[in-house]
Amino acid sequence: xxxxxxxNIVKIKKMKQEGNPITMITAYDYPSAKLAExxxxxxxxxxxxxxxxxxxxxxxxxxxxxxxxxHSRSVARGAEHTFIVTDLPFMTYHGSIDETxxxxxxxxxxxxxxxxxxxxxAEIATTVQTIVxxxxxxxxxxxxxxxxVNQIGGYRIQGKDEPDARRLIKDAKALEQAGAFAIVLxxxxxxxxxxxxxxxxxxxxxxxxxxxxxxxxxxYHDVLKYTSEYREKRFxxxxxxxxxxxxxxxxxxxxxxxxxxxPGEDHVFAAEEGVLDQLYGKGKAxxxx
Length: 289
Fold this sequence. Notes:
- By secondary structure, this protein is of the alpha/beta class.
- 40% of the residues lie in helices and 13% in strands.
- The protein has one domain (9-223): TIM Barrel (Alpha-Beta Barrel), CATH 3.20.20.
- An eight-stranded parallel beta barrel has the order 1-2-3-4-5-6-7-8, surrounded by seven helices.
């Protein structure tokens, strides 16, 4: 069996040219990354959505750079042969360029990412260009940008009217010009996402952005329904219901422990014959067994 070779940005761009759809999944830990790699995923995104999905926050805003480094490193250990992109979290690339580059360095050197993702369009293009010139691939992200959820007024579809569509096209072109190797389009009206994909030379990867993108990304836990009190999302297709299986399995474990069914004969280890007699004296062992 041949060892999988990780993609690079040249191959990712070529996939758009060849009409080969790009598959991306957002994962946050070693076992998830390992399983995703075994399933032959193209790219793993270590998203700051880990705040909502695995850390219990109600948004991505509380997620720190330390959180991202920790989870990125875990994913990198699980998917050694997959291209890994890690989010720069809230307010880690809006200060001085020196501070931004220090944060990028941590994700690359400590988090073992192959690229970083940044939310925003024309307003961050200069920063994107500087990071790219420093030798770091950048994945752009426009449309719904969760780090700006308080400013944009919630989780709303983007590009529904002409001015907003023009803004998104302008942002995509600015990121392309700045050197981004691809752009995530999140919750963008399908017609606008398709227009953006046609107007730029770099790949677009959609999440809730319809069928005209060059690839798709979904969150691991959404794909597998791996959560409690799962909230349905129109743009998500669930491919397995792991949550119910996990809940059922743990419930059965609790039941068997409570009824002393587990551990059974197959799950215990025996000492050498006569050990209890040696410990407690012959004839007294039964009271300790």
